[in-house]
Design goal:
Blueprint (H helix, E strand, L loop, with lengths): L1 H12 L17 E2 L9 E3 L1 H8 L15 E4 L7 E4 L2 E2 L4 E4 L2 E2 L22 E6 L13 E6 L13 E11 L4 E11 L3 E12 L13 E4 L2 E2 L10 E14 L2 E15 L7 E18 L2 E17 L17 E19 L2 E18 L12 E21 L4 E15 L16 H9 L5 E17 L2 E12 L3 H5 L5 H4 L10 E3 L7 E13 L6 E21 L4 E2 L10 E25 L2 E16 L13 E10 L2 E10 L17 E11 L3 E8 L38 E9 L1
Parallel strand pairs: 6-9, 25-29
Antiparallel strand pairs: 1-2, 2-8, 3-4, 4-5, 6-7, 8-9, 10-11, 10-35, 11-12, 12-15, 13-14, 15-16, 16-17, 17-18, 18-19, 19-20, 20-21, 21-22, 22-23, 23-24, 24-26, 26-27, 27-28, 27-29, 29-30, 30-31, 31-32, 32-33, 33-34, 34-35
């Protein structure tokens, strides 16, 4: 079966990338931004979403189409986006208007993993300086992912039914996905159902990258080029209902996710179950004075981790591996009004509330050290946010636009008392010492955070705009940063959100991160933006940046010096940081001839980071990288040849013993053909099967005896995927 699938993908990918026809339209460019907005976001164009969806099921990876964004590798459908070196909870990520929180000590269920690429209506990014109306409690920017807007029949039209079905296949990893969508609508009522499923086996690197095959399980080994713990199986479903009347719209949706397994090559544990249910209600009204939008949502997550098929399950007398459970609930509400002060200015005011609850516990497994009781990692963790904002946007004259905003957030956090597996101080674990110290602390913390944004846009002439701004953003620690407590290596390595193989524990007294960012965008373009070139320099200074320091568990104090070339235990700590860089992007037509229409587009991103206390780089900062794409269009064909270039990474985080990676270049070929109701996508990624290590992929911990902190080899970076052929088809009805 695998051979047949691969042969089918190879045959489809062998379609000629050049085909003759009469229509020579150049396809939509990847990046779009409204020229009429201040602080306009960049959007991944719908065409780019459709094109990339055949090659990935990870919604976060679609963001690579935009400059300044990289992906910190995790599970196959759970990448963590990074904007200018700031990732994960440092970003405000909204899915259908909901602020979703990762309920996992390894952040295996991030917000974007809850929406399949086939379910996207729009995907937008506010890099660095984001308007206060988009969200707070973040310092790196905002990402907004939305499902398609409700579809209604036209006045006088009969009820309509629309939908689509699609499937994709990738040869490397034997990955298959399928989706369907259906909508029934009248003039005032709309109902939509979406279902998407995906599964994959372990994928392979371009060559052997390790010297061992053992997984710790009798009779189960991995090839030397197999990237262990990269398999996954996932399903997302949603049902949406909407009603409109005159200038009012009411929507309600229910979303359900089931992940039987998603394995992780850079974590010591794997996700072996993730069940999530979301309810989302929204009202949008166009009133005499402006617009009013209200939202209420609730999410419940049940999350289970243990050792997947490529990691040792039985330790001593253990019969259950090491089960770990997380249960999270998020309830949120928001209200936003946009008032039309006059034809040239708007005022946006609003408020938000979010209540988050988390329990994280590890039942006994049967091994002597993991029992006889239950390890309480987080007990009744609480994180409540109450926010209010005001934002004024105005066109001061034909050349100047401005946006000023202020936002206040009250973040209240607390957690209950904890305990280890045993009520005694088991040898070498310090469970009783650490839990007693944690329980004796005042864990009730409240932060009062202020955000400010000032943006201006100046239109020099018909071919040039300049946008510049200044922002102060604040983020409070998350629950795991404040309330994890154990210095015991086995427990600490199970708390790791960055994939570096180290162990982490928190600090109740962490201060919120405070970032000041200044940036400017110089935008040169032609009429109707047939050609475009943008340059964006930026600078960010962060006080109380939450980094980490190596810890001496025996003395229960910071280590006197960093242990090198090894896995270790670290404690979250406030330090100071600086990030600066440059983003370039553009596109232009080249020629039109009998072979079709030709164009190029490209982007370059450079970010330099530094921990000002240690002098080291910040962990997982993407090195200099660029993408150049040759575009060809003729008839229904849209063809692309991509060159992806990444420089070597040698500016590293010393405390985390980050691994250096070499530079590389990859070639990808993509082609699509669209009929009226059918679309075919084919391509080859990593055409020349180039071996490469992912600069932000973390440390390989994907196989073997992962429970002991140094029971697996240190120093192997997670490799990228070797050559992979893919094909996808979508049929609309």
């Amino acid at each position: 079966m695998h051979f047949k699938r691969a042969a089918l993908a190879s045959a489809i990918a062998a379609f000629p990338l050049l085909s003759l026809a009469d229509d020579t339209r150049l396809p939509t460019v990847t990046v779009s931004a409204s020229p009429e907005e201040v602080g306009a976001s960049s959007a991944v164009a719908p065409e780019a979403v459709r094109r990339q969806s055949a090659a990935t099921r990870d919604t976060a990876s679609l963001l690579r189409a935009l400059p300044g964004i990289s992906i910190n590798a995790a599970g196959g459908v759970s990448g963590l986006p990074s904007i200018r070196g700031l990732a994960d909870d440092r970003l405000r990520i909204k899915v259908d208007g909901m602020d979703l929180i990762s309920s996992c000590p390894n952040h295996m269920n991030p917000a974007l993993s809850y929406i399949d690429p086939s379910a996207l209506g729009s995907l937008r990014v506010y890099r660095g300086i984001s308007p206060v109306s988009v969200g707070g409690d973040s310092i790196g920017g905002s990402i907004v992912a939305d499902s398609p807007t409700p579809l209604f029949a036209q006045p006088g039209q009969d009820a309509l039914m629309t939908g689509e079905v699609g499937a994709t296949y990738r040869s490397n990893g034997d990955a298959f996905s399928a989706h369907l969508a259906a909508t029934y609508a009248t003039e005032s009522f709309s109902a939509s159902y979406r279902d998407a499923t995906a599964n994959a086996n372990n994928h392979k690197a371009a060559r052997d990258f390790k010297t061992f095959t053992a997984t710790g399980r009798t009779g189960h080994s991995l090839d030397l080029d197999a990237v262990g713990s990269t398999a996954y199986k996932t399903r997302n479903q949603s049902l949406s209902l909407a009603h409109r009347s005159a200038n009012h719209l009411i929507e309600g949706s229910v979303g359900v996710q089931s992940v039987p397994y998603q394995l992780y090559p850079n974590q010591r544990m794997d996700m072996l179950d993730n069940d999530a249910t979301r309810i989302n209600l929204r009202y949008m009204g166009q009133l005499d004075w402006g617009t009013l939008e209200a939202r209420l949502y609730h999410e419940k997550v049940d999350h289970t981790m243990n050792f997947g098929a490529d990691k040792q399950l039985v330790y001593g007398t253990a019969v259950n591996g090491m089960p770990m459970h997380s249960a999270g609930e998020t309830t949120g509400a928001s209200l936003k009004a946009t008032l039309e002060l006059d034809p040239m200015s708007l005022l946006r005011v609003g408020g938000e509330f979010q209540a988050y609850r988390l329990d994280d516990w590890w039942p006994p497994s049967g091994t002597g050290m993991m029992g006889p009781g239950t390890f309480i990692n987080i007990n009744d963790g609480q994180r409540d946010r109450l926010a209010a904002f005001a934002e004024w946007e105005a066109r001061l004259d034909p050349q100047w636009m401005s946006l000023l905003g202020v936002r206040f957030e009250r973040v209240s956090m607390d957690a209950g008392e904890v305990s280890g597996y045993a009520a005694t101080n088991m040898m070498g674990t310090n469970q009783l010492r650490d839990s007693s110290a944690f329980n004796a602390q005042d864990r009730d913390k409240t932060d009062h955070n202020w955000d400010f944004t000032a943006l201006a846009k100046y239109t020099v002439d018909a071919q040039m705009d300049i946008e510049f701004g200044l922002a102060r953003k604040v983020r409070s620690p998350n629950v795991y940063e404040r309330y994890t407590w154990s210095t015991w290596t086995m427990a600490a390595v199970m708390n790791n959100t960055v994939g570096d193989g180290n162990g982490y524990f928190g600090d109740v007294n962490l201060e919120p991160e405070k970032a000041t960012t200044v940036s400017a965008t110089f935008d040169w373009h032609g009429a109707d933006r047939v050609w475009e070139f943008k340059a964006t320099p930026f600078y960010t200074r962060v006080s109380d940046y939450i980094d980490a320091i190596q810890w001496n568990a025996s003395a229960n104090t910071a280590a006197a010096s960093n242990a090198a070339d090894t896995f270790t235990v670290l404690r979250y700590a406030n330090q100071s940081a600086r990030l600066f860089g440059l983003e370039l992007s553009g596109h232009m037509p080249l020629a039109t001839n009998s072979w079709g229409r030709w164009g190029v587009e490209g982007q370059l991103s450079y970010t330099r980071s530094k921990n000002l206390d240690t002098g080291d780089a910040l962990y997982n900062t993407m090195p200099l990288n660029a993408t150049a794409t040759l575009i060809h269009a003729i008839g229904g064909w849209d063809n692309r040849a991509e060159l992806v270039m990444v420089s070597g990474k040698d500016d590293l985080s010393g405390a985390r013993n980050e691994i250096a990676t070499a530079g590389y270049g990859l070639v990808n070929l993509r082609g699509s053909y669209a009929w009226k109701q059918v679309r075919l996508d084919v391509g080859v990624e990593n055409l020349f099967d180039k071996y490469h290590q992912l600069p932000t992929g973390g440390t390989y911990t994907g196989q073997g005896t992962t429970m002991g902190i140094n029971s697996i080899p240190w120093g192997i970076a997670v490799p990228g995927v070797g050559r992979s052929l893919y094909a996808g088809v979508t049929v609309k009805f």
